[in-house]
Design brief:
Layout lengths: L6 H15 L7 E2 H8 L3 H9 L3 H6 L5 E2 L11 H13 L13 H4 L6
Helix pairs in contact: 2-3
The chain binds a DNA duplex (13 and 13 nucleotides) through helix 2, helix 3, strand 2 and helix 5.
Amino acid sequence: MAAAGSEASERLRAEVLRLVALIPEGRFTTYGSIAFRLKVNPRRVAWFLARLSPEEAGVLPWHRVVAAEGRISRGMDPALRAEQQELLEAEGLEIDGKGFVLDPDRHFHAIRS
DNA sequence: GGAGAGGCTTACT
DNA sequence: AAGTAAGCCTCTC
């Protein structure tokens, strides 16, 4: 019953996409923030972003979504991390060589309805 | 229809 | 700062 096409799942995916798209340039948010706003587990948000369509990934600033506290988790693929880091740097954000945002509080974007 | 394995996390130590 | 442990969801066979 891998009902990934359920109405609830599809709607939730749209909500996540919408929130991510609302993130201003030069700013970032966390999986936990989006997850908390949608009343779902952080992991589910990450799953949706990971399963995004190439077309949506090209329009959505998924790179502005990082792990808790503006840190990039280590479980992610190195190539993906590098791409995300490069995209964030291109937006004016400063990322540590280890994948840590230098001023998380200054660039943090709280999710709101 | 049911069971098993995996994952872009989080929080704690 | 890094590593480990726990817990929840989705996907695939």
